[in-house]
Design brief:
The complex is a heterodimer of chains A (534) and B (276).
Chain A (H helix, E strand, L loop, with lengths): L1 H25 L10 E6 L14 H7 L7 E3 L6 E3 L2 E6 L5 E6 L13 H12 L6 H4 L3 E8 L2 E6 L5 H11 L5 H4 L19 E7 L3 E6 L13 E6 L3 H9 L5 E2 L9 H5 L4 E4 L7 E8 L9 H10 L2 H8 L5 E2 L23 H10 L11 E7 L4 H16 L2 E5 L4 H10 L5 E4 L2 E2 L3 H4 L23 H11 L4 H18 L2 E7 L3 E4 L2 E2 L16 E2 L2
Parallel strand pairs in A: 1-10, 15-16, 15-17
Antiparallel strand pairs in A: 2-3, 4-5, 5-7, 6-7, 8-9, 9-10, 11-20, 12-20, 13-17, 13-18, 13-19, 14-19, 21-22
Helix pairs in contact in A: 9-11, 15-16
Chain B lengths: L1 H10 L1 H23 L32 H37 L1 H16 L2 H12 L3 H12 L1 H14 L3 H8 L4 H37 L10 H10 L6 H32 L1
Helix pairs in contact in B: 1-11, 2-3, 2-11, 3-4, 3-6, 3-7, 3-9, 3-11, 5-6, 6-9, 7-9, 8-9, 9-10, 9-11, 10-11
The chains are: A alpha+beta (534), B mainly alpha (276).
Chain lengths: 534, 276
């Protein structure tokens, strides 16, 4: 049944995508129509909407239409499509990267865009202020601007060009220097009233109601964008989002804003398409985070036992209704550059789990339990909470008494990443196209308490730290790739974290919305080519 | 006289229906481990099984394949324990405070009743939310959070009864025997004011049941025990596709609150007959 449902849903998605293409062809390959207002669902209103400072999907969802990166991800060619940069090249020594910038681009306030804006964004925002940029641009020493169309990034230590390329779509959003050079960047009003070069201009934000974006008539790409306006309606209630879609009050809901359980029904509603594509570039990984300060959990056999107690197939089929894949390690299978399946695996095997726990000197006590621990599911997704309920039962089956502790988002972040007041936590780190961007930080030791989505687990391994350091300083692409494959193997052997499933999201849209999901970061890309058929 | 009142309340139509609903709820709560042994959170079947489609899972299953009937039956116990404990604490504290205030008068009366005023100016649900976010989600925390604002109503009612009875000959004679005002308030006056407060208890229990569900619905209950509110919250996510997940616990809550209210109604009727 689950299998059938999954096939059915996948089928529905494929039919949807095929229908879109067919329709486009029938109208003369393709004959987009200009005009119209696209209303979409938004569920969060980030306090700081500046993508050069806050690289997160909640920010990108709105901001990526207004502020552009140097380049965007694509499934074609070498994986990068030009945006503000038209060409990029790294030197073999890893000491510099040269970006050639687009001509004839202007900011929404009319000022011309130039290499000075790129240099300013990189040196003053990405490197010192941005959550992810601090890691990737750590060794960035200066950005030279020999002319208005050229920005040369200079690094104090060899920095792999491969990593910079992989980081550009998410980390290299360019903001206008003339608005940011005076005063405190963090308090700049342009962080909430965005000014960019993108296809849409920021028109207004009515808190609790809408973000409204308007067509930028002087966008650098002639004839784009097609839409007159994009309206993000703030709808925190999932049920309300599904109802609004059915009533055509909104035309699109991204990031699985509609409950997964409703997808099957929605897929049958005429005029609505369920589209599981368009998120590969932002794969999330359902992960069991482990506090190694807890003596039972410091034993690799116990961690391995926990991994064997988890039925990944059940998690994928039931919690994700088939919209996910079982994980093998810290790099998702989608990644074509670094992924290796050749890692130690922990298949679902309760008997093996029990044997390992016995071996670790943790026999079942009088109440049938071996030991008890606190389990903190992250509150951000329906699935992180549901997996918490599942894991509690899965652990009880092998004699581990897990008590769930629920927190709101700030309390959860504090408990796990600052106070370390947890034994197991359930998180969903994002894989961002290169292990060096947001993945190895989950494994390297020596980070201060309070850095979120990082190794706050008390895990410290000389081998692991050495491997991460070596890979970070390796310029050669083949050698670097090989090192990250060893990293995946070591992660599977020491198992400091347990990766359970990799998942992306689903877009539900009216069939009148065209060019949906046509790149791997679609929901967080510029939507210049999105259009509405009548 | 009191037993007589309860007896008469039970004989009204409302009282009879209400009482039978409550007996069923209490029986289910008490017998839960016998009726449906094992962990109610166990994943036992396919997810979102419809009700009545499988005799082993009469009310169907939820998103993970857990038996809804088992969770409702096991969830009855914390709900009822919470509601009854809140009522007990609220009545105990409220009646004592009311009796003392009414009997002593003066400064004690002022202090107690102004405190009651202060508590009543803040919406009780907001108080409960605040208390729970400080104490963290747990059963004792939940009871304390709800009792904090529930004691004021019985305090007021009992105080006015005490003011009425204060000059009665049997109270005067107790005082003349040289007993203190507080012992007299608690042992002589209070038993005579209790019937009025009892009628209030139904309102408190019903309110506590609903508040408990609402707090669990918001995720402030104990996630390691089944609870109706948490089930309703989960059911809301799949309401349009699998409405039974929200309807079943909703009905359980509705019927229990209905039972309590009907018993309260019966009590009130019997009371008005008695006084008329």
């Amino acid at each position: 049944m689950t299998m059938q449902r999954r096939t059915l849903l996948a089928g529905a998605g494929a039919v949807g995508a095929a229908a879109l293409t067919r329709k486009a062809r029938a109208q003369g390959a393709p004959m987009p129509r200009s005009g119209g207002i696209l209303t979409v669902a938004a569920d969060t209103e980030p306090r700081n909407l500046n993508p050069a400072m806050v690289a997160s999907n909640g920010v990108f969802y709105v901001a990526s239409k207004v502020i552009e990166p140097l380049a965007e991800m694509t499934t074609q060619g070498d994986g990068l499509a030009p945006r503000l940069a038209t060409h990029w090249e790294g030197t073999p020594d890893g000491r510099s990267v040269t970006f050639t910038l687009r001509e004839g681009v202007s900011w929404h306030d009319g000022r011309p865009f130039s290499s000075a804006d790129v240099a300013f964004s990189a040196m003053r925002l990405w490197k010192p202020l941005q959550n992810l940029g601090r890691v990737v641009f750590k060794a960035l020493e200066s950005v030279d601007t020999p002319d208005a169309r050229t920005a040369i990034f200079r690094f104090s230590e060899p920095t792999p060009f491969q990593m910079i390329r992989n980081a550009v779509p998410g980390l290299a959003s360019v903001v206008p220097r003339h608005l940011y050079e005076v005063g405190d960047i963090a308090a700049n009003p342009a962080n909430t009233r965005l000014v960019g070069t993108g296809p849409f201009r920021f028109a207004e934000h009515r808190p609790g109601e809408v973000y409204r974006l308007e067509k930028n008539p002087s966008y650098w790409e002639a004839g784009r964008p097609y839409l007159d306006q994009i309206i993000f309606r703030v709808l925190p209630d999932r049920g309300a989002i599904a109802a609004a879609l059915e009533a055509n009050q909104i035309q699109l809901a991204a990031f699985s804003a509609v409950p997964l359980a409703d997808m099957e029904r929605l897929a049958r509603v005429p005029g609505i398409a369920v589209i599981p594509q368009g998120y590969d570039g932002i794969t999330y990984q359902l992960t069991v985070e482990i506090n190694h300060r807890r003596k039972e959990l410091a034993d690799a056999r116990v961690r391995r036992a926990i991994a064997h107690a988890i039925d990944r197939r059940f998690v994928v089929d039931t919690i994700f209704l088939g919209y996910a894949k079982p994980s093998t390690g810290p790099v998702p299978a989608f990644d074509r550059q670094f992924y290796t399946a050749d890692v130690p695996s922990t298949p679902f095997d309760r008997r093996r789990a029990e044997a390992l726990l016995d071996e670790a000197g943790l026999p079942r006590g009088a109440n049938g339990m071996r030991f008890s621990l606190r389990l903190l599911p992250a509150p951000w997704f329906e699935q992180t909470r549901q997996f918490g309920d599942y894991l509690r039962q899965a652990l009880r089956a092998v004699g581990i008494d897990a008590q769930i502790v629920n927190n709101d988002a700030p309390a959860h972040l504090r408990a796990v990443y600052t106070d370390h007041a947890f034994d197991l936590a359930i998180g969903s780190p994002v894989y961002r196209n290169d292990p060096a961007i947001s993945t190895t930080i989950l494994y390297e030791s020596g980070l201060p308490a309070g850095v979120p989505f990082a190794n706050q687990y008390g895990y410290a391994s000389v081998d692991m730290d050495g491997l991460i350091r070596r890979a970070a300083g390796t310029i050669d692409t083949a050698e670097r790739t090989a090192l990250y494959q060893s990293f995946q193997k070591l992660a599977g052997t020491e198992l400091p974290l347990i990766h359970v499933a990799e998942f992306t999201f689903i877009t539900v849209a009216r069939r009148s919305v065209m060019n949906v999901a046509n790149n791997p970061r679609w929901a967080t890309s510029h939507w210049a080519d999105t259009w509405l058929s009548s | 006289m009191r037993d007589d009142l309860l007896g008469r309340a039970a004989l009204t139509a409302e009282g009879l229906i209400g009482l039978s609903l409550l007996v069923v709820a209490a029986a289910l709560a008490l017998a839960a481990p016998l009726l449906l042994p094992g962990d109610p959170f166990d994943i036992v079947a396919r997810p979102l099984l419809r009700p009545l489609s499988d005799p082993a899972h009469l009310l169907g299953t939820d998103r993970l394949g857990r038996d809804i009937l088992a969770m409702i039956v096991h969830g009855a116990r914390p709900s009822l324990i919470t509601a009854l404990s809140v009522a007990a604490v609220a009545l105990g504290v409220g009646m004592t405070a009311g009796a003392v205030a009414g009997m002593l008068g003066g400064v004690a009366d002022e202090v107690i009743m102004r405190l009651a005023d202060a508590v009543q100016t803040v919406p009780s649900f907001v108080v409960a939310l605040a208390v729970l976010s400080v104490l963290g989600p747990s059963l004792p925390g939940l009871i304390a959070a709800l009792a904090v604002s529930a004691w004021t109503a019985p305090a007021r009612v009992v105080r006015s009864e005490v003011l009425r009875l204060r000059g009665a000959p049997f109270v005067e004679s107790s005082l003349l025997l040289g007993r203190g005002r507080i012992p007299v308030a608690l042992t002589v006056v209070l038993p005579n004011a209790i019937t009025v407060a009892l009628a209030l208890s139904a309102v408190i229990v019903a309110g506590a049941l609903l508040s408990e569900a609402a707090l669990s619905f918001l995720g402030l209950g104990d996630p390691n025990r089944p609870s109706w509110g948490a089930l309703i919250a989960e059911g809301r996510q799949v309401m349009r596709t699998a409405p039974h997940v929200i309807i079943a616990p909703g009905m359980a809550l509705f019927l229990t609150v209905l039972g309590v209210s009907l018993v309260g109604e019966g009590l009130a009727k019997a009371l008005s007959k008695q006084t008329s």
